[in-house]
Amino acid sequence: MGTNEGQALPVIVRVLDASASEAARTSAVCAKVSSACSDPILYTDPASCLQDLADKSTHILIIDLETIGGEDGLEAYAVRCPKAVIIAVSAMGSVSRAVNAMRAGAHDFLTKPFSLDALAAKISFQLDQRKPSQPVAEPAPEPVRPPVPQPVVTVIDAASEPSTALGLERMIGSSRQMRDIHDQIMRMAPSQAPVFITGESGTGKELCANAIHDLSARQPNRFVTLNCAAIPRDLIESEIFGYVRGAFTGAADNRAGAAEQADGGTLFLDEIGEMDLMLQSKLLRFLQTGTFQRLGDTQSRKVDARIICATNRDPLADITAGRFREDLYYRLHVLPIHLPPLRERREDILPLAQKFLTRFTAEERRNFHGFDADAEAVIMTYAWPGNVRQLENTIRQIVVMNDGAAVTFDMLPMIIRDQSARSPAVIDLSRERLRANVAPSRPFGSIEPLWAQERRIIEDALDAFDGNIAMAAAALEISPSTIYRKRQSWTARSL
Ligand SMILES: Nc1ncnc2c1ncn2[C@@H]1O[C@H](COP(=O)(O)OP(=O)(O)OP(=O)(O)O)[C@@H](O)[C@H]1O
User: Fold this and answer.
1) 77, 63 in Cβ contact below 8 A?
2) What are phi and psi of 261, to 5 degrees?
3) Which stretches in the chain have pLDDT values below 70?
4) Regarding beta strands 13-16 and 60-64, do their DSSP bridges make them parallel or antiparallel, or are they unpaired?
5) From the CA of 403, how far away is ligand 1's center (Å)?
6) Residues in domain Response regulatory (predicted)?
7) Closest C-alpha to ligand 1, atom 10
8) Do 167 and 236 belong to one domain?
9) 4 in a structural domain
10) Of the residues 317, 340, 363, the one at which a domain ends
């Protein structure tokens, strides 16, 4: 704790709590954690705190939710100090409250009465992110993942990955499905039970595993990723369990494997469906006993690592086909999370695209601010078979190859323009349904009046986008006002 002592930059901490004694208690913790924040500013009334947030800089804001009338009031504070780290505290803590507070701008959450150590750990963690050469309040840039191929084993130390504490924030998406996922992550994070994540490639399974680790008590320890598909079959055992000198040709030293490196932290087994059957039984034994042996060793070792695994295959089909051990599956499949493909949560597409555009525009020193209407419509209706990864790579490609204030239709890669030039799936679907639903008893045989056909198509599009007029309009390539106008005319007809 307080690892920045001796090189600490001043940190401006503000504490808002209607109870003066609570505020003073919190303030005492700050001073104890580091001399850098030895003089926190206390507020018991929201108005003066809000005023100061607007006028003066703030690095850490510790805010009591009851004092501001609940988490809904938090946003007003967050917008006044967008660069500050906000720790929300509440005497009425619950998972949904914590999730709502995070959505409203909090980075962390504590339920009252909290131990001084718990608060100290949170503040200390924030302080440890600050380096002398960085402006204190600047959030660290998001780490840019290297292009494929991914490393076989990735070890992330809390200290070397500043933004991991904001794991949930990095998972962009406010669709109903993503809100459910955020909720599940918050509930699962404190548990020790294994988590089993399924979902198509590129849907964010690793990001999800990372968020669970970040929000757990294991966060100060390592998050170790082992990509089972990327490791040659004969090396995978030594990658997981390590080896001793002389265990095989080339084993010149003793080496800890991923399981040992994750001791106290989380071991993420990506692409678990690719694991060889012989190794599956070793993994099962490790899960049952918590013990293992390094390759070539006689000594048994014990570690405490939480297991999270992920696959983009259907695990039950793999069991039926004899490729995956059923007993291992039931050991691992304790807390399941399924990440839906991007095409099933279209509301998330534009916020993700905008986020990637902002990030890559800064990285590549371009001038983009957004997308024009045509580009937006195509981005929103394209099927994105490669999910978020494909969207991310597409935006990166656009930014690298072009410049301007807005991304235009012409800048989109050909495959995306071509696909959208053919009618998107939703439109085909509605036409199919239209054909199937034509009433046979019409005065002119099977011919339905044009306005009724239009109405059916528009209503199908609205259904496909859960009533979202902007998205339905984009898919139909008409303006939202056309939908409003048509709806009025249908109402007039039925009067
Ligand atoms: N909700 C999200 N918000 C922001 N970025 C996301 C989101 N989901 C995925 N990404 C980004 O998309 C890329 C792919 O995500 P990730 O590696 O977690 O997917 P995956 O499901 O594990 O893929 P694979 O099955 O191929 O390993 C990453 O760069 C990740 O940061």
Assistant:
1) yes
2) -65, -25
3) 1-9, 95, 125-167, 419-447, 466, 470, 481, 491-495
4) parallel
5) 26
6) 14-127
7) 204
8) yes
9) no
10) 340
DSSP per-residue letters across 177-213: HHHHHHHHHHHHTT--S-EEEEESTTSSHHHHHHHHH
The answer to whether the CB of 168 is under 6 A from ligand 1 is no
Q: What's the one-letter identity of residue 394? A: T
Q: How many CB atoms lie within 10 A of CB 247?
A: 16
Residues 434 and 405 in one domain: no
Residue nearest to ligand 1 atom 31, measured at CA: 207
**CB distance 334 to ligand 1 below 6 Å:** no
Q: Would the CB of 214 count as within 6 Å of ligand 1?
A: no
Q: Using one digit for the tens of pLDDT, what is the confidence trace for 168-217?
A: 788 999 899 999 999 999 999 999 999 999 999 999 999 999 999 999 99
CA–centroid distance, 208 to ligand 1, in Å, is 8
Mutation probe of ligand 1 site: the residue of 389, 394, 395, 396 with most atoms within 8 A of C-beta = 389
| 244 and 297 Cβ atoms separated by less than 8 Å | yes
Specify whether 187 is located in the same domain as 227.
yes
Residues 182 and 72 in one domain: no
pLDDT tens profile 231-267: 777 788 888 999 988 877 777 788 899 999 999 999 9
- Residues ≥6 apart with Cβ < 8 Å to 27: 13, 15, 40, 42
> Any idea which residue has 């493909």 for tokens?
341
Alpha carbon of 308 to ligand 1 centroid (Å) = 16
| Ligand 1 atom nearest 339 alpha carbon | 21
